[in-house]
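// run 5 | inverse folding | seed 20
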């Protein structure tokens, strides 16, 4: 019997807690391999985890959040851009916290490389930075350059600094895992509303952000058994420019005060709007969601902080979860009520 491909993606504009959900699933479902997919280091996942040197806040822009499981292999998908400077800083930070990451991390030889010229193309008064709200990571210019096929793009196999981690054929390694009956987790980045194909164009990222794109990034076809978990918050946040439903609505005014943690890459506080049922509906449909992970319940209902049973949640929170299942016909399978992994529970 083959293993299952678990895909974690966001339904809104990022910051839906995908990293925490991916980390939790890695521990809960005994994942053999965790794979970072997505555009590249323009998106980061923050999670609060217990490590050999204590419970710490960790920020991952390249390393899959599945690193929390010591027996899980870690991969960067061939479709994902890599910035060696960002990766070096990230690995050095993780070294200080104690987990063995370097020995388990492998980067596909085909990963395109972000270089100085790509980052510089987004700085200053560039259109991407001032009008679109780009994160100045260089991902957009790299993807544009690659699409033009001018031959200047370099790949991981050409970067000496990455040689200890580079491997040929991450897709083949993942297929071998699946055929051996072990599960694989694909960690998506950003959110559905930022998809180049399905999002609020032109205020989007430089690639699609759906589960299908994660499969493409990793080099896996659609014939495997696939479980798609779509992460949803009971309100909506967005960094930078672009439309945001219900921004400034009185029902979310207090969320802004509690939403004090800037995004991992954004470095600024996010705009806050109301829950957008139409956006979430499209996200669940396009992603072929098999389950919903509801996160950040405690941000809008502080009384639910740390609760780990659905029956113990406040009536408004239980009503919200029931409403999601009734409206969309998709089960809520995970709920998060706080920053730490222990503040997460399985619904069914």
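// decoded
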């Amino acid at each position: 019997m083959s293993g299952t491909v678990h895909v974690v993606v966001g339904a809104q504009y990022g910051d839906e807690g995908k990293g925490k959900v991916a980390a939790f699933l890695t521990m809960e479902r005994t994942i053999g391999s965790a794979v970072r997919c997505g555009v590249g280091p323009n998106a980061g996942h923050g999670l609060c985890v217990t490590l050999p040197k204590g419970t710490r806040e960790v920020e991952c822009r390249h390393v899959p959040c599945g690193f929390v499981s010591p027996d899980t292999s870690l991969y960067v998908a061939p479709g994902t851009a890599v910035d060696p400077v960002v990766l070096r800083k990230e690995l050095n930070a993780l070294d200080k916290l104690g987990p063995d990451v370097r020995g388990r991390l492998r980067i596909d030889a085909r990963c395109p490389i972000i270089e100085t010229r790509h980052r510089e193309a987004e700085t200053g008064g560039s259109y991407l930075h001032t009008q679109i709200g780009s994160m100045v990571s260089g991902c957009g210019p790299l993807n544009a350059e690659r699409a033009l096929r001018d031959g200047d793009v370099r790949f991981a196999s050409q970067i000496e600094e990455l040689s200890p981690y580079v491997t040929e054929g991450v897709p083949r390694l993942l297929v071998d895992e699946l055929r051996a009956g072990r599960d694989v987790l694909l960690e998506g980045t950003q959110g559905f509303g930022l998809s180049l194909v399905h999002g609020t164009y032109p205020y989007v990222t430089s690639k699609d952000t759906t589960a299908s794109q994660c499969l493409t990034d990793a080099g896996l076809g659609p014939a495997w058994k696939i479980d798609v978990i779509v992460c949803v918050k009971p309100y909506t946040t967005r960094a930078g420019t672009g439309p945001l439903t219900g921004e400034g609505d009185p029902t979310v005014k207090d969320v802004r005060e509690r939403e004090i943690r800037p995004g991992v890459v954004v470095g600024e506080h996010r705009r806050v709007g109301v829950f957008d049922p139409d956006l979430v509906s499209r996200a669940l449909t396009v992603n072929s969601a098999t389950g919903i992970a509801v996160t950040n319940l405690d941000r809008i209902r502080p009384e639910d902080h740390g609760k780990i049973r659905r029956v113990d949640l406040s009536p408004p929170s239980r009503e919200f979860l029931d409403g999601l299942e009734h409206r969309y016909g998709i089960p809520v399978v995970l709920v998060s009520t706080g920053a730490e992994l222990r503040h997460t529970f399985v619904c069914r």
